[in-house]
Structure formats: C-alpha cells, structure tokens
Write a structure and sequence with these properties.
Helix content: 10-25%
CATH superfamily: monomeric porin ompg
CATH class: Mainly Beta
CATH topology: Porin
Order of helices and strands: HEEEEEHEEEEEHHEEHE
Shape: globular
CATH architecture: Beta Barrel
Radius of gyration: 19 Å
Number of strands: 13
Number of helices: 5
Strand order of the largest sheet: 1-2-3-4-5-6-7-8-10-11-12-13
Strand content: over 45%
Amino acid sequence: MRKITGALLLSPLLIATSCPAANWSLGAQGGLYQTPYQTRHVLRWALPYVGYDGKTWYLDGTEAGYNFINTDTLLLRAKVYYYDTLYRADTGQTPALRGLSNRNSTMMGGMTMQYTTPVGAFSATIAGDTLDVSNGVVANSAYIAMVQWGDFTLVPEAGMDFSNAQNTRYYYGISEKESAKTGLATWRPQSSIVPYAQLAMNYAWTPLWNTWAQFTQRFYPSTISDSPMVNKNNVRELTVGMSYTF
C-alpha cells in the first residue's frame, strides 16, 4: 500500500518537531509505481495536494484525522485514509487475467500510535475497511528516523504491512467461480505480512515552498507472490510533489 504523503506530514516524526501553529498547504503530487499483479504497464498517477497541519485536526493529501495526543514524544490519532491497492481486469496480461473481477480500492479507518525517542520513532497502526469492499483489517508497524541538514530533511523508514486473511483473499485470491470462468487455479491465501524499506526527503526552498520525494521498495511473501494474479515478489514506488504553505 502506498502512502501518498506531502510536505506537512512527510513522516509522522515531523509532527513532533513541527511548529504548533496551524498551517494550510496547497500543491501537486504524482508518481509511478509497480504492482505485484500481472498487468501490462507501470501505473502512473497525479493529484492535487491539500494539507492542513493543526494541533488536533490534520489533512495530508489522501489521509485525514484527529490527534487525541500530540506531544513531543507521543502521538495518538484516529484517521481515515485511501487504501489504494486495486486491480483492473482490463489491464491483465492474458485473456484469463482479463476475465477476473476487478479488485477495488477503499477507505480505511483506524488508529495510529507513535512514540518518538532520541534514536527515532516507533509507530503502530491498525485499521479496517469502512466501505465494505474487502471487509478486511490491516496493520502497520514501523521504525522511522530523521536527519536534517539545513533545509534538507531525510527520513528513512523500515516496517511491515499486515493484511488479514479476508483482505488478502479479496485482493489476491481467486475464487472457485473465477477459476471456472478463467481457467486459473483457485487461490485462497491466509493473512500476509509485507516488509518494506522507504526513503523520503523534503527540501524547503523557502519557508513557504517545499518539494518532496519518496522511494519505497516492498517485498511480497509467497502468500501473495504465489497467486496466479501475481508475477512479482518485490515492487518499487516513487512519489514526488511540491507545495506552498500559507
């Protein structure tokens, strides 16, 4: 799952070190990414960026939420966010893959807790599907560091994305009905864990103008990579953006 982030919340670690005054940001962001699915091309996207950085409420592109606790060391928030995993059958590489049903993106809602220490931040999130698309549950745990050189900020992150069996089956499973229709083997996976490594960076050209970039590498377990829908065991993602804060 890609997290589409912006200049305000490039990493949750930045919240603990940011100014408490509320700010709005407007900009644009885009990127390209691989998916594990057997599709015919790399996906590209572009979106306007809107951000709001308040002490309690926040908006960061495709994520919004409320901070119950927001101190220098502890963050506890409720949030909703766009869960962008999807499969469009008409992009499948073979007629059989094009005969499958679409797998749709959804909106997740849940909680995040983060504890910041002198050596970095430790974050945990749990969320569930709010739109009855997969009816699944996902979770994330991550270690986030931050290094600053003047106006340049570097944010390395390593973590794991958990998806329960229901969510994994919706996005990567093949039902008996689909198998009979397409000739692909049935696939009924259990829960899955996807490790990832991420490097994000932000450069403040002025106190108001920011640019950012984020590169992510994900490593898929056999629970996912052995699906007849899938032909990759790792994928790469790139996001770039620019915003103006006022």
